[in-house]
Structures are given as structure tokens and as C-alpha cells.
């Protein structure tokens, strides 16, 4: 039987490899002509390159740059023209107000699409701004409400996993580990809000008892008090729902508060910062639900998706010295925009939005199936479970 995952895998070639073209081809070859610079696909990015969120934002900037260069080697076929991607990447410093202002500035400058927001707060601000501006926006942040309610977010698309899917995977893991009493320690803001709703719903249908929910204070505040409340009563395990660097800080404070049981993270925790330095001992043996791309590409690529992942990983390693360890959502965002421009045969913002919501494809980070009634996020079967072993994220299930 043809499964939903099989359909996504079959679509991978059109998303991931459409920009590769014949060897040696350049814009202008093959009976088409190159578009002038003012007719590029102009993508504006608002990312956390400093301050709160920089742990994840810097990796997404690198993914954008590598993927834009790859696509521009052959150009993007839009009607009879081969177009290039032009990036304008700005630092929002983790501020929702700055992110919203940048969305307006980039749109006025001619951006046909927006990408960014690794934090739930900045992503939500960008989504609201994109709706006012009628500019397609691809979110890299966590929080289900970024694209909900849909009638108020018709121009927004979320690439990160949905909280409900991560929570269900965690509930299954908790049951398999015979965890019976668990505490949820959730970040403040939209991402934490999604986690609270999703974990409660998932555990209601399981044999695991959610003893209590404790919310972390804002980033930069002392987490000790929240960790002490979470560790009280010696729960069998603690779910930490947040993004790096908060996840590692929370784990460290939980150990100081006396929690010796296992820790369970959502995908937002997965970063080098979480498993290194002062956090290393605290998180050893912890589990995380994360897109399966964290395991890297096999040595022998057997699908177009694996070929594309291998190529991306090679380019990233050559440039930055290490393999990319975290889901390169920004790379998928550019590929989705390029595929939409090809199908739309236009760079019109409205047409790009219309074709984005028909995309079903396998990306670098995982599978996506956008529809008119669903603008996010990643497909549930793209997720895997990872174990922190000797300071590394190791595939567990």
C-alpha cells in the first residue's frame, strides 16, 4: 500500500533536487533567459543571531546561506526565466517587536517571502505581521499557535514539529520506560503553552500520571525555584519543554534540586549547548524527541532525500568544520519557496502563498504536507527518539 510517508518520499525529488539540474548548467542555458537582479526571488529573514535564541538562530542562518548558494548554481525556473534567490538576513536579537518591524521593512524593500523566528515569541510576531502585510511567512519557531487559528494565519506556514506529535511520542516513550509519575517543566511563552496543552492531552490517554506542571520564568532568570518545585515529591521523571539554552539550564537546576530520575526533552532542546560544558553531566542519559535528520544521512544514499541530506551535510561540514546537528528548517523553507515559485510560474506573493499550501514533500529536516486547512508542521512520522550518550545525541528509537 502507498503510505502517506511513501507519497512524501516520492515527492522528495521535486523539492530537494529540482534546483540541481544537469551537470554544468547555468542560468541562461537550455533555451531560457536569466532574470535581472531586481527580479530575483527576494527572501527576507529575521533571525535570533544575538541574545535569546542565538543558540539556534545562527545554525538557521548558515542553512539559509548554503541552500541559497546551491539553488543559485542553476537558478530557479519560474516561467521562462531562471531566477536567483536573494537573501536579506537581519538580527532580531530575540525581540518580537524588532522582528515585526523587520518584517515590515523587508516587505517594503520588496521581499516576496519571509523566513525566521526560532523562538515562539518572535515567530508569533512575524506571523501576525505577515498576515497584515499579505506576505508568505515560513516559521522556524516552536509553538502550535503560530499558525492557529488558521483564518488569522493564512500567510503563515510552520516547519517545526507540532506539540501534539512530540507529546504523543513522549507519552509512548514514558510508558515503555515504565514511568508512572511525571512532572512537566515548561518554558514561558507560546512554545511552553503548546507543550502544556499537548502533554496534558497525550498523558490523559496513557497510563502515566502528570503529577504537576511548573512553568519556567523568562530566559535569563534564575530557574532554581521552578526546578525545586518540579523535583518535589520525587517524580519518576521530568519532561523539560523549552528551547536551548533554557533546556540545559533547567536540567542542571533539576539535578541540583535532587532529581535523579530520567529527563525527557522536546525537539527545542536539541543543540550542542544542551549537552556540553556545565550541562554535560546533568543531561547524560536524557531522552529527546526530534526530527530523524539528527541521525545524519547513511553512508550509502538510497533515495533522493538521502542524497540531498548528504549533500547539505557535506557542504555544511566543509564550511563550518562540524556536521550540522540540528534540523535545518531554514534550508527546507527556501526549497519550499523555490518549489512554489516554479509551480506558480510567478513571484507574486499571493500566488506563492497559494502554492505553498499545496506542498507535499520530503525535506532535509523531515516530511511536510501543507494543505489549505493545515499550515504546519512537520509530519509526525518524521520524528525519532534520541538518547544523550557521552555528550552526543544517539538514535534510540
TrEMBL record:
<protein>
    <submittedName>
        <fullName>Amino acid/amide ABC transporter substrate-binding protein, HAAT family (TC 3.A.1.4.-)</fullName>
    </submittedName>
</protein>
<feature type="domain" description="Leucine-binding protein">
    <location>
        <begin position="43"/>
        <end position="377"/>
    </location>
</feature>
<dbReference type="InterPro" id="IPR028082">
    <property type="entry name" value="Peripla_BP_I"/>
</dbReference>
<dbReference type="InterPro" id="IPR051010">
    <property type="entry name" value="BCAA_transport"/>
</dbReference>
<comment type="similarity">
    <text>Belongs to the leucine-binding protein family.</text>
</comment>
<dbReference type="InterPro" id="IPR028081">
    <property type="entry name" value="Leu-bd"/>
</dbReference>
<keyword id="KW-0732">Signal</keyword>
<dbReference type="Pfam" id="PF13458">
    <property type="entry name" value="Peripla_BP_6"/>
</dbReference>
Amino acid at each position: 500500500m502507498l503510505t502517506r510517508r511513501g507519497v512524501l518520499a516520492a515527492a522528495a525529488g521535486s523539492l530537494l533536487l529540482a534546483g540541481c539540474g544537469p551537470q554544468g548548467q547555468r542560468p541562461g542555458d537550455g533555451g531560457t533567459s536569466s532574470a535581472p537582479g531586481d527580479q530575483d526571488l527576494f527572501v527576507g529573514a529575521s533571525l535570533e543571531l544575538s541574545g535569546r535564541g542565538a543558540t539556534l538562530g545562527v545554525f538557521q542562518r548558515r542553512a539559509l546561506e548554503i541552500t541559497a548558494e546551491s539553488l543559485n548554481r542553476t537558478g530557479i525556473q519560474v516561467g521562462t526565466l531562471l531566477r536567483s534567490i536573494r537573501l536579506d538576513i537581519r538580527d532580531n536579537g530575540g525581540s518580537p517587536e524588532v522582528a515585526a518591524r523587520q518584517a515590515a521593512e523587508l516587505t517594503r524593500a520588496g521581499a516576496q517571502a519571509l523566513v525566521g523566528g526560532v523562538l515562539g515569541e518572535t515567530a508569533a510576531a512575524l506571523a501576525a505581521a505577515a498576515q497584515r502585510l499579505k506576505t508568505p511567512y515560513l516559521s522556524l519557531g516552536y509553538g502550535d499557535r503560530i499558525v492557529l487559528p488558521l483564518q488569522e494565519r493564512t500567510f503563515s506556514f510552520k516547519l517545526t514539529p507540532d506539540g501534539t506529535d512530540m507529546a504523543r511520542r513522549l507519552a509512548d516513550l514514558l510508558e515503555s520506560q515504565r514511568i508512572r509519575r511525571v512532572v512537566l517543566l515548561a518554558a514561558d511563552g507560546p512554545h511552553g503553552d503548546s507543550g502544556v496543552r499537548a502533554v496534558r492531552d497525550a498523558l490523559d490517554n496513557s497510563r502515566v500520571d502528570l503529577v504537576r506542571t511548573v512553568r519556567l520564568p523568562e530566559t535569563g532568570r534564575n530557574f532554581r525555584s521552578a526546578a525545586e518545585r518540579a523535583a518535589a515529591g520525587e517524580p519518576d521523571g521530568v519532561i523539560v519543554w523549552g528551547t536551548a539554552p533554557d533546556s540545559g539550564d533547567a536540567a542542571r537546576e533539576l539535578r541540583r534540586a535532587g532529581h535523579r530520575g530520567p529527563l525527557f526533552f522536546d525537539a527545542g532542546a536539541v543543540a550542542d549547548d544542551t549537552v556540553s560544558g556545565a550541562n554535560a553531566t546533568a543531561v547524560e542519559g536524557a531522552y529527546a524527541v526530534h526530527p530523524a535528520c539528527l541521525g545524519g544521512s547513511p553512508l550509502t544514499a538510497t533515495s533522493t532525500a538521502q542524497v540531498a541530506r548528504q549533500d547539505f551535510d557535506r557542504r555544511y561540514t566543509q564550511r563550518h568544520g562540524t556536521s550540522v546537528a540540528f534540523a535545518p528548517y531554514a534550508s527546507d523553507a527556501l526549497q519550499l519557496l523555490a518549489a512554489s515559485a516554479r509551480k506558480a510560474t510567478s513571484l507574486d506573493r499571493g500566488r506563492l502563498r497559494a502554492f505553498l499550501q499545496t506542498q507535499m514533500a520530503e525535506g532535509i529536516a523531515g516530511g511536510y504536507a501543507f494543505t489549505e486547512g493545515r499550515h504546519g508542521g512537520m509530519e509526525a512520522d518524521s520524528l525519532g527518539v534520541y538518547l544523550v550518550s557521552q555528550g552526543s545525541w544517539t538514535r534510540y528509537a
